[in-house]
Design goal:
elongated, 2 domains, ATP binding (chains A, B, C, D), homotetramer, kinase (chains A, B, C, D), about 40% helix, Rossmann fold, glycolysis (chains A, B, C, D), ATP-dependent 6-phosphofructokinase (chains A, B, C, D), alpha/beta, 6-phosphofructokinase activity (chains A, B, C, D)
Amino acid sequence: MKRIGVFTSGGDSPGMNACIRAVVRASIYHGIEVYGIHRGYKGMVKGEIYKMDSHSASNIIQKGGTILRSARSKEFMTPEGRKQAYEQLQQHGIEGLVAIGGDGTFTGANIFYEEYGIPTVGAPGTIDNDLYGTDFTIGYDTAVNTALDAIDKIRDTADSHDRVFFIEVMGRDSGYIAIPCAIGGGAEIVMIPETETSIEYVVDTLRTGWNRSKTSFIVIVAEGDDAGNANEIAAKVQHELPHMDARVTILGHVQRGGSPTAADRMLASQMGVACVEGLLQGRKCEMAGIINRELVYTPFIDTITKDKLINPQFLKLVDILSV
Amino acid sequence: MKRIGVFTSGGDSPGMNACIRAVVRASIYHGIEVYGIHRGYKGMVKGEIYKMDSHSASNIIQKGGTILRSARSKEFMTPEGRKQAYEQLQQHGIEGLVAIGGDGTFTGANIFYEEYGIPTVGAPGTIDNDLYGTDFTIGYDTAVNTALDAIDKIRDTADSHDRVFFIEVMGRDSGYIAIPCAIGGGAEIVMIPETETSIEYVVDTLRTGWNRSKTSFIVIVAEGDDAGNANEIAAKVQHELPHMDARVTILGHVQRGGSPTAADRMLASQMGVACVEGLLQGRKCEMAGIINRELVYTPFIDTITKDKLINPQFLKLVDILSV
Amino acid sequence: MKRIGVFTSGGDSPGMNACIRAVVRASIYHGIEVYGIHRGYKGMVKGEIYKMDSHSASNIIQKGGTILRSARSKEFMTPEGRKQAYEQLQQHGIEGLVAIGGDGTFTGANIFYEEYGIPTVGAPGTIDNDLYGTDFTIGYDTAVNTALDAIDKIRDTADSHDRVFFIEVMGRDSGYIAIPCAIGGGAEIVMIPETETSIEYVVDTLRTGWNRSKTSFIVIVAEGDDAGNANEIAAKVQHELPHMDARVTILGHVQRGGSPTAADRMLASQMGVACVEGLLQGRKCEMAGIINRELVYTPFIDTITKDKLINPQFLKLVDILSV
Amino acid sequence: MKRIGVFTSGGDSPGMNACIRAVVRASIYHGIEVYGIHRGYKGMVKGEIYKMDSHSASNIIQKGGTILRSARSKEFMTPEGRKQAYEQLQQHGIEGLVAIGGDGTFTGANIFYEEYGIPTVGAPGTIDNDLYGTDFTIGYDTAVNTALDAIDKIRDTADSHDRVFFIEVMGRDSGYIAIPCAIGGGAEIVMIPETETSIEYVVDTLRTGWNRSKTSFIVIVAEGDDAGNANEIAAKVQHELPHMDARVTILGHVQRGGSPTAADRMLASQMGVACVEGLLQGRKCEMAGIINRELVYTPFIDTITKDKLINPQFLKLVDILSV
């Protein structure tokens, strides 16, 4: 393998740039050429492909977002689109790909390999952390710290006004972000998609606290919770507890941005190098990851189909700590 | 005057604790006693009044929120409530008050003085900055920096995905927070209550940018804008520009919390000392403030009835900088 | 066991308060009483021992430092001192101890158990991370992020002025802090106690970079490096490369403070609960830790005598990434 | 005037990039061309001059340092060097200059104008704030907040260990940075070049506090204080008070970097526009500034020769607040 391409795909996450940098530097270190593909599969189809050198990756390790940009591509979902993408890669002499993204990205890479034999090694780039094959995904630690920083600020005002705050954090399918936000943010309750949390339980817990003269509360809600979104839950609780002053904050897209934490820069750097070295070892359709501090490669198909479960101890921890 | 009380009232703002600390320390410095009144007028009515010493104000200068807490009080709006408040103060021997809050707080203090002759000197404690009688209010600088920090993060993801972000910042009646967020956040458009901004203008500006191949945009919306809230505005714009990917983030209560900036700690410290010294000089029903770096006292009635206008140059600046 | 004591000892680290909070809450959860011992062994000897309730641990999870304070105690190193400490504990009815600290702390606890039979379970509280028996210590992640934040700022000015910066981070005996600072900070060279790095190597690397028209460099130096401290190293390098503009920054004690990161709050919370539960299980002279995301207890003697080695892959990573 | 050049010179300061951006955008807005001159006068002599467009100033408003870099130039101090610089400007058709820097920068611009008639309008770009002709300089607010953030962290550890910390902040000739650090950082003493502070006073103040059972102290030292640097002062104090545990932290170059605060972005944006508009109005050898929230232009000669005095009220404030 003499020439590879790198791209970011799906929702951006902090540390993607650190990963791109590592891919570029590892390529140079191992004597191969590297091209940046802009806007993910969309740019692959359209041929937005540019040579990168050591300098193109300078001074980006600390930046949020992705300098290669990201996008969804309807064309790549069609056989014609993938054919075009293949021709673009051929034209640039690209023999292997590094994909930084999540399971949607890897699904595309799998199909592409079956059709055209271009191998892809992936890096887990998503803030959600619900990706089988790695303990942590690139951007997760930063997203949690960003959310926690906001929660600390909200607690200042919650305490000052004796209020109940329902804070919605990201996590459409999982509580990976919500759990450390709840434990680290000193929340009384956490509501996540993996477990059922009834409105009755929330109402009872708040009422009990109130009766013990606790006057401010924080409830962390993962956006995909089965009881509804934070606004809906707050409205129901407020209805039951009209004497309390319930407020809602939806943290939203701030959780995707910002300078990556040390842990995310470390992980992203390791993953970038591992992707390049994986391609050079002849790997195809595998994602690099760190499990128990060891580098592992997991077939894309497993990252897509297998579930990564949350440690149930953490839910117990929320209960103990909110005594 | 031998003994004074201090309280915080209305929405909390970062720097209130630094101001409380300065009130306590200045009291000790000038040889008078100081009592903390909890939960504003509510606690005054109920007698939640506690002696403070140098130590009670230790290690709070950097904290968000208010250790004295804040609340709204319906009782204080009634003659009976104020009578009770007066009796509580009498009982504790409190002869003067320092009120840290906004115009609602000062309105109450004015009436209270007329009825019972207890003088109050106020410190401008609100993140909104729309208070006549001071260039800046305590908490404003912190709120703007907090919002800007969030906007920086959102721009990371906006740039990575070619999106239009509508970001709603605080400001029910004014664009004081929105303006520096727009200028400092590199926004293309700012929408504030003080000026009319039509949806047509927004659509035109975005379309023009798009046609010049600009692909990501930030629009800052003050919550009180006449064109609607950020969700409504975004929906209207999205309808006109269906090819763009519009997203909304409402920053909300994070803007109230957090450790105060250097400027807010300085201002809060100066104001706290000025309130105590104002009381000792025999002032009553006046708010301390800084205008052109000089300490001034402004009658409460002026802070309540007069408008503080935004510098129109700043709106032009947004235009120039988004070229 | 009906009543336990908790104390912090040795250098403070961010997350100690989160751990204290977890000890308090877990005690209440499990129906036992908990006393805070101030200033470590010093306060134990002197009897600075106070009952804690749920409220004493409120609103401290986000605070740096330790509300129980820390100190060195010469008295506790003497048999008389330990006798006095034992009598104090007896007097307060304390049957077991939670010690948050490092190997010096655990050495004392071991001796104390042999002499008086008071069991101690420890939590790894040190920013240095060089403690056998846990993947990470409480405060380490925060210290690294604090250092990295400073390094990011220094790189701004290094790049603007074409300078070589020698940045000294904490680590008297190990490169645990230096390594992620180097990888995450985009440094060209890292100098740690575990490996020999000659001045010649530094000079050669910088000269080679310079000749490839690279004009700004960052060298991370662990304070305990064998080649000297950052000032000494910089002077030697400057002597060999007089045309370069070498500067030194010693980060110092800022690395000990600050609000703990999410990872440190999580770890501290888990450790605090594990210490209390460990005591209730009858453990003595063991430290709680997390290895490969599982809770483990390690005898104090092992934490004191065994080495925790740095992953040699990380040094290679610095080389690859600075290509 | 059809074409201007912009450069940064002297020590870099946060907000210089925001100012460059404003210069570029204002030039486009007013229909003139703008060239970036790299490395200040050094690059002007060597002809490191490149055309800038709207895009070259994209996404830099939040960045520390200066994308145009800065340097000292010995050549520009000679008539031959200035001749060469003039020829370079001629060659590029540059008729006016915007200089972002401090008094050294403006001195050079003055001489250059006298010799070659090229007008310069300056923006106050220095963290030190001791520049006559503006209330605040670009970068000052950020530097103070960065220092304060570090001081907050150090106070965590000072409080935990009952220590006296001597913290050295920037300020070779003035206490502008030291003063808000002391007031905002809750310091007991501040030592600045403008006033004499004897070691005896420091020793007395600490001893008095100690005797009132205060056990941790913070002393802020401006680097240019007449009593010596922080290390020297600490050694002398430690000698007199051997029972106290004195520590030193020198904040150093971190104070120059980092993302600019809202206030610095606002100021930098206003200054950049004012420089371009000043040139278009025919100004020469003047610095733009903000005094009492109004835009003013001050002759370079005044900015160089006149002193800007510190408000003596602030020193009294330190005394009152450390009661």
